[in-house]
Amino acid sequence: MDCRTINDKISQYLDKELDETQTRQLEEHITTCAHCKKTVDAWVKLYGVLEVEKSEYAANPFLTQRILHRINAKRNAEYPSTLTIRRIVVSSLAAAGIFIGVIIGTLFNNSLLTSSNDENDQPWAMVSEEYFPTEIFTPFE
Amino acid sequence: MTDQQLVHEILYGNSQKAFELLVEKYQRLVVMTCRGFLSNYADAEDLAQEVFIEVFQSLHRFRNESKLSTWLYRIAVNKSLNFVRRQKRRRIFESLDRLFSDKANGHNLHDLQNMSNGTPDGQIQIAEDRKVLKQVINSLPDNQRIAFILNKYMDLTYKEVAEVMNISLPAVESLLFRARTNLQKKILGKRNME
């Protein structure tokens, strides 16, 4: 292996991704080539810095609880509680009932008003005349 | 409990305990992946929380076609990249702010004094090396950075990196080679500047 090939293979060598033959060839080369040895050492040292950082990891015992707390908080924000839903439904139903009542009342009132314009056309006026004729049941003056 | 059982329990058994187990099992994987992209543990842990919240919310979309760990790596990498981009934008605005602020120089001097007080030389050097390395890693193009962090921080094999990034094995080799070349150039460049 020449220096150029070694340079291309250093990453794989340090990551132990080279096969046995290539690993042996590279190691033989760096025992005789000071320049390549220096490069390999520099990378080993640099990766050592990463190893220090990796070794500092310590599991946080509160992480799970924090996550669950945030999930529940999000859920509560997105979905209102049962009590809130019940309050919303009851008040909506009450409002709808009042609205329907007002509409029916208004319609009924309108029909009475129009009927008073032409009494003879209304069946209830005819019926009252039949049972309570005006000549007999004249109101007192 | 296997990953499949955990996922099934969370989705269909509505089990909080199963989710707790999942978080405990993969806490290191997620925190360290985020740490690879970020400059401190506090940010990495905050981001890990967001990763797990997303996992919880979108677990029904996980199809068991890949390993659960591969899926977690992908979410952690995406969240980290977005976080770093947001941080960069914020830093640009902060530096603009500082540019127009008289207090800036005083603060920097104070920070420097605090840092050097009572800190042994060796530790300063290590901290400095780490800082430089972090800066250089963060300046790599996204694909190279992801491959490098997964391989060097998480000790994933090239095959595993290929699975997470959904690329071929030779593509991973090429990305890592280019990442190393770029790192070398950038580190040498920084040294020459000093």
The CATH superfamily of the largest domain in chain B appears as RNA polymerase sigma factor, region 2, helix turn helix motif
Regarding quaternary structure, what we see is heterodimer
Overall geometric form of chain B:
globular
Give the C-alpha Rg of chain A.
Answer: 48 Å
- The share of residues in extended strands of chain B comes to under 5%
Whole-number tally of structural domains of chain A: 2
Percent range for helical residues of chain A?
Answer: over 70%
Termini separation of chain A (Å)?
A: 135 Å
Question: In CATH terms, what is the fold-level topology of the largest domain in chain B?
Answer: Rna Polymerase Sigma Factor, Chain: A
Structural class estimated from helices and strands of chain A: mainly alpha
How far the N terminus sits from the C terminus of chain B, by CA atoms, comes to: 53 Å
Q: How confident overall, as mean pLDDT of chain B?
A: 82
Question: Briefly, what CATH class of the largest domain in chain B?
Answer: Mainly Alpha
If helices are DSSP runs of H or I spanning 4 or more residues, what is the number of helices of chain A? Answer: 6
State the low-pLDDT regions of chain A, or none: none
- Helix proportion range of chain B: over 70%
Mean pLDDT of chain A: 81
Q: Count all strands of chain A and give the number.
A: 0
Would you kindly provide a written description of the structure presented here, covering whatever features stand out?
The complex is a heterodimer of chains A (141) and B (194). Chain A is mostly helical and 141 residues long. Chain A folds into 2 domains: 53 residues; 69 residues. Chain A is built from 6 helices and no strands. With 194 residues, chain B is mostly helical. Chain B has 9 helices and no strands. In chain B, α2 packs across α4 and α3 crosses α4. About 8% of the residues of chain B have low confidence. At the A-B interface, α1, α3 and α4 of A face α2, α3, α6 and α9 of B.
